[in-house]
DNA sequence: CTGAAAGCGCTTACAG
DNA sequence: CTGAAAGCGCTTACAG
């Protein structure tokens, strides 16, 4: 049972492969194929269920109609949903999507990029890891289309879609201040990623603009990659040492989740004893009692913008390395964890 | 800047393309390439950063080293994590993975299968939708490797990896009975998928084996695809009409989530007024106060088993259509939502 | 308006 | 032990 090829179609119609190819690729008009011939070809293609062999097409044109999606963790709410939307949009445009998770590991990320390159993807959407600069620059030099999503690489001008982390953090902090909280703890991770430093800057600016002084000890930074147990115990210790705090700002989703566990263990009630805000929304924050106020990333917008940008670059409607980024505004979703403070 | 090809390597070494090809494909020994030649070739390949053109290889061999993963929703915790593990295992074996979400829509699923077929995937892992039988049978007839995951197709003998839904449901119900709950409500969806009917059967058997009588009105089934608002109002109404219930069994993850919202709205406290169990674990159930007792799907085991099975079929170590399924045992994770009942 | 043919970069049967 | 060559199924420059 052999698959039908263009040759078979051409032979059955007593025409040439060329004609069949022109019809398939929508070049009938430009190439002056008669409407009658065109219809004959189309009908037989449908009847025989012919589909062009993608490998042959790929070999000949050098285009695979495939894009590579490299995220931190496809199993995570944010990236899973980013992936879903990117795939749908790509599909609409005739592209398939390979995916992989870096687990935030440089070596893995590098391997994935190269593996996908060997599979001739036409372009990438990449969630960068910290040491990925060289690898990404190589793509740029070889003129392979890509878009960075969610995080920038410091000192690399390129195409990206990221959240306005500074503004989100500023607004989230400001929300706490407006609600009357005056002694806010900031819990983050040690990271050179711009997103984390932007969040810290936003926090500090908001505190500063409010005329308050921030004590150094109000900031806790946790080693990246610390396990849950360690993280929770560090947060608990931080809480013990800072009994005067009336609110906590968690700089990432998972710190927020672990922080809530830590608060439960320390018998600190939300929001009576401590108000809580976190960056990144998820189901948990929405459904917990009390629900948690967050700076939410507009997943759909970020995903759509990134795949659209990549497709424009692939189609040469936009230049690579043009430093044409999109900065998406986060949304502050006010919930029950930050009621106006009773003085 | 042209990519280096086997031809370039061969020319530079004054040898033939054949020799280079044999070395690349690990056939040196079988084909009697001398170790010296082999080393020369390998060294130059490394030096020139040569990578075989996958399109050419694919065209020639008919193998793409790609598998297609079709799930219900990659953005969902269960499938996202299934995808992650499948991708890692596939990668280890030299395969890339295309993915797509069906959103449980038959037409989408059919299109995806065909789209991937045109991209010549070597095999599929598929979360079936209800009306996918014919399409899947076609794959079988054409001898295209595939494995069904998470759900069976009724009356279709094939390769699959599913959860033992009956047993999980039986055990979860039994746990409630053992803890002293005697009037258990079962909340599910209308579905012809075997998984849902197995869960209902498990529930009914456990009730029956306990010697209790079940009143019909203790079962609520919700139209598949109902939105959150509708679902919550249906559950609320059900609770109002069945004031005598002391426990609820949610047959899926998302029903559990919505059910908890409904309980909150109705001011019914968990677990004081009502014990709760749900099928499918997730972060929320673990972190809620109180945490929720669940029948958990061993995600890693299911993912690993399915990709291993698919690779065996692709490598012809196992026959397709052999009806060789793997039925994975769910784990009952007892948490705070089901304390022993105070009589 | 349409066709014959080169060539994309591999793998492998065949020849020596 | 190694090489010359066919052929996978397309696209497209060229010829008519």
What does this structure look like?
The structure is a homodimer of 343-residue chains. Chain A is an alpha/beta fold. Chain A folds into 3 domains: 6-61, 434 Repressor (Amino-terminal Domain) (Orthogonal Bundle), CATH 1.10.260; 66-163 and 299-329, Response regulator (Rossmann fold), CATH 3.40.50; 165-297, Rossmann fold (3-Layer(aba) Sandwich), CATH 3.40.50.2300. The first copy, chain A, has 14 helices and 12 strands. Chain A has helices at residues 6-13, 17-24, 28-31, 35-47, 54-61, 77-92, 106-118, 133-141, 165-178, 194-209, 228-241, 253-265, 283-287, 299-314, and strands at residues 66-71, 96-101, 123-126, 146-149, 160-163, 184-189, 219-222, 247-250, 275-279, 293-296, 326-328, 331-333. In chain A, the strands form 2 sheets. In chain A, strands 2-1-3-4-5-11 form a 6-stranded parallel sheet, with helices on both faces. In chain A, strands 7-6-8-9-10-12 form a 6-stranded mixed sheet, with helices on both faces. In chain A, helix 1 packs across helix 2, helix 2 packs across helix 4 (35-47) and helix 6 packs across helix 14 (299-314). The first copy, chain A, is elongated. The N and C termini of chain A lie far apart (80 Å). The relative contact order of chain A is 0.12. The model of chain A has no long low-confidence stretch (mean pLDDT 91). Chains A and B meet through helix 5, helix 6, strand 2, helix 7 and helix 12 of A and helix 5, helix 6, strand 2, helix 7 and helix 12 of B. Chain B binds a DNA duplex (16 and 16 nucleotides) through residues 5-7, 10, 15-19, 21-22, 25, 31-34, 37, 52-62.
């Amino acid at each position: 049972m052999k698959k039908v090829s263009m040759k078979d179609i051409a032979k059955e119609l007593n025409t040439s492969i060329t004609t069949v190819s022109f019809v398939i690729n929508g070049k009938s008009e430009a190439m002056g194929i008669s409407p009658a011939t065109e219809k004959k070809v189309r009908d037989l293609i449908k009847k025989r269920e012919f589909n062009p062999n993608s490998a042959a097409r790929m070999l000949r044109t050098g285009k695979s109609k495939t894009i590579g999606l490299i995220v931190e963790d496809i199993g995570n709410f944010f990236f899973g949903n980013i992936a879903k939307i990117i795939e749908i949009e790509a599909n609409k445009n005739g592209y398939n999507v390979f995916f992989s998770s870096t687990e935030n590991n440089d070596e893995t990320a590098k391997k994935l990029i190269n593996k996908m390159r060997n599979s001739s993807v036409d372009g990438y959407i990449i969630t960068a890891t910290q040491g990925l600069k060289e690898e990404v620059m190589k793509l740029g030099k070889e003129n392979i289309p890509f878009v960075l999503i969610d995080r920038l690489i410091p000192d690399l001008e390129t195409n990206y879609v990221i959240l306005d982390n500074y503004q989100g953090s500023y607004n989230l902090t400001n929300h706490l201040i407006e609600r009357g909280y005056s002694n806010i703890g900031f819990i983050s991770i040690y990271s050179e990623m711009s997103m984390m430093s932007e969040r810290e800057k936003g926090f500090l600016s908001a505190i500063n603009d409010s005329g308050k002084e921030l004590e150094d000890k109000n900031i806790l930074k946790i080693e990246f990659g610390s396990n849950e147990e360690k993280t929770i115990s560090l947060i608990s210790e931080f809480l013990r040492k800072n009994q005067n705090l009336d609110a906590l700002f968690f700089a990432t989703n998972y710190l927020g989740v672990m922080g809530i566990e830590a608060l439960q263990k320390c018998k600190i009630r939300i929001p009576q004893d401590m108000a809580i805000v976190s960056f990144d929304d998820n189901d948990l924050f929405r459904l917990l009692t009390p629900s948690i106020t967050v700076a939410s990333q507009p997943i759909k917008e970020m995903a759509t913008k990134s795949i659209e940008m990549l497709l424009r670059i692939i189609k040469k409607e936009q230049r690579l390395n043009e430093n044409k980024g999109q900065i998406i505004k986060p949304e502050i979703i006010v919930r029950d964890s930050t009621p106006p403070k009773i003085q």
